[in-house]
Every structure is written in structure tokens, then in C-alpha cells.
Design brief:
The longest helix has 26 residues. With 246 residues, the chain is α/β, with parallel strands linked by helices. 38% of the residues are buried. The two termini are 26 Å apart. Strands 1-2-3-5-4-6-7-8-9 form a nine-stranded mixed beta sheet, sandwiched between helices. Helix 2 crosses helix 3 and helix 3 packs across helix 4. The protein is globular, with a radius of gyration of 17 Å. Strand 6, helix 4 and strand 7 form a beta-alpha-beta unit. The protein is 41% helix and 26% strand.
């Protein structure tokens, strides 16, 4: 991991950009954290729209996490932002746009092509980033995962034992194969669902929640579309992570 910039935001937050090989990322840490006590870490997932485009939302989430006593970090997803484009993902995105514009249902073949290659490449990168982040002085476990592409969160919850709790957003397409993986998830889960999400199959989201194998799992459903998540939903998620990571 190579830090490329550092700035102090207008509150008690240090923001450091870094690269991990070809992967850009950002780490946010409390400026006044006690050196004697490692700060728990929350990995911030996001949709594959590019970190620069997502930055205003990401920094808001990171500031909240730091205010709650955590460090927060994110990395650029494969094929997004300034990273090289992946031909298979670009084709799947084009097929998705065509289906949506034509008013056609999005087929399972499109969903598989859109999501599964992203999961296969992104999850090992998140694990490599976690290795590097936990080696940064002042950062320690336990670790949580929050938001982003829900299938990435599912895979990480299954294969990464250092992640002890996850807050997932039921707002993206889910391949049928991920339902089987969901049954292997055992960590505590906080799942957010926007009831009127125009791009999300509500019944599929409910079926996915039912499939999760966790003994502790909570579903928080709010009225409104994809971008209408109420402010207090963040407060609920903060309490969840505080309970499991502090």
C-alpha cells in the first residue's frame, strides 16, 4: 500500500488516498484516536460508478463512521473509475441498458454476466486491501462491511473470517447462484430495503433475506425509491456496527 495524499477534513477526520498495485482507495481515520487502542474498521462498499463520482456520498458515510469511533476505507471496483475497462462487464452493462430502455425484464443471463465476474475479481481485491489496511498503525479489528453491491457483501461474508458484521443494501441485481451462498452467511446482518425501489425486485430482496443463514439478521424497510433512504437509516446502521464492532 502506497499513500499518495493526506488531508485533514474540517472535522476530526484524516483522509488519505492510497494505491494498492493498480487499485486506488481512500482511508479515513480519526485524527485524535488514542494510539494505545486500535480503531475498528468498516469497509465501505459502493456501486460500480467510480470513486470520483461516488466521493460526495462516500465521504459523508466515512465521516459518520469516524464520528462513531471507526476507521473507514474503500477501494475502486474493477472496471470502474480510472481502472481499465473490462470488456465482458461493458457488454453486460450495454445489454442491461437495452433491456431497460425497451421495457423488457432483465434476464438471469444478463444479471449473471453483470454481477458474477465483478464478484470474482472484486472480493480478492477487497481481501488484499484488508490485509494492507490492518497493517496500518492504529487500525485493528474487528472489521465490518457496509453497503455497495450486495453480492460482493455476500461473498465477503462467506469467505472472509475477519469481517464480523455486515450492513447490506438490497438495491442491486442478485444472481440466483448468490442465494445459495447467502445460506452460508452466519455473521450478524443489518439489511436495508427501500420498499419502492424502482430498480429492485422487492420479492427477490425478501427471498434473499430469508435465505441468509445468520442467526441474527434484521431487515429495515422504508418507503421510498432507491435514492430516498431516510437520514435515520444511517443512525440505525451505526447502532448495529457499534453493537458488533465496539
Amino acid at each position: 500500500m502506497h499513500f499518495t495524499s493526506e488531508q485533514r477534513l474540517d472535522d476530526d477526520v484524516i483522509e488519505r488516498e492510497f494505491t494498492l498495485g493498480e487499485i486506488p482507495g481512500i482511508l479515513w481515520t480519526p485524527a485524535s484516536a488514542p494510539a494505545s487502542t486500535p480503531t475498528p474498521l468498516i469497509l465501505l462498499g459502493h456501486p460500480p460508478l467510480g470513486l470520483r463520482k461516488m466521493y460526495p456520498r462516500m465521504v459523508g458515510r466515512a465521516r459518520q463512521a469516524v464520528a462513531d469511533g471507526f476507521a473507514a476505507a474503500t477501494i475502486e471496483l474493477p472496471g470502474s473509475g480510472e481502472r481499465p475497462r473490462l470488456d465482458a462487464l461493458e457488454q453486460a452493462r450495454a445489454d442491461l441498458r437495452r433491456a431497460v430502455q425497451a421495457g423488457e425484464p432483465v434476464s438471469e443471463e444478463i444479471i449473471d454476466a453483470l454481477v458474477l465476474p465483478l464478484v470474482e475479481q472484486a472480493v480478492p481485491e477487497w481481501q488484499a486491501a484488508l490485509d494492507a489496511l490492518l497493517a496500518v498503525p492504529g487500525i485493528g479489528g474487528p472489521v465490518g462491511y457496509s453497503g455497495g453491491v450486495i453480492s460482493i457483501g455476500i461473498r465477503l461474508a462467506v469467505v472472509e473470517p475477519r469481517i464480523k458484521a455486515a450492513g447490506l443494501f438490497a438495491g442491486s441485481f442478485v444472481p440466483r447462484a448468490m442465494f445459495e451462498e447467502a445460506r452460508r452467511v452466519t455473521i450478524p446482518l443489518h439489511v436495508l430495503l427501500q420498499w419502492d425501489d424502482e430498480g429492485n425486485d422487492r420479492q427477490a430482496a425478501l427471498d434473499l433475506f430469508d435465505a441468509f443463514g445468520s442467526e441474527e439478521k434484521s431487515l429495515y424497510a422504508n418507503m421510498g425509491g432507491h435514492t430516498g433512504v431516510p437520514q435515520f437509516a444511517g443512525d440505525d446502521a451505526a447502532r448495529f456496527f457499534h453493537r458488533h464492532l465496539k
